[in-house]
Amino acid sequence: MFHGATLSLVRCNIGGIEMTMNQNSIDAYAHIKKLNKKQNIVYEAIRANPVSSNRELADDVLHWRINCVTGRVNELKDARLIIIAGKKRDPLTHRTVDFYEVT
Question: Are residues 44 and 80 in the same domain?
Answer without folding.
Answer: yes
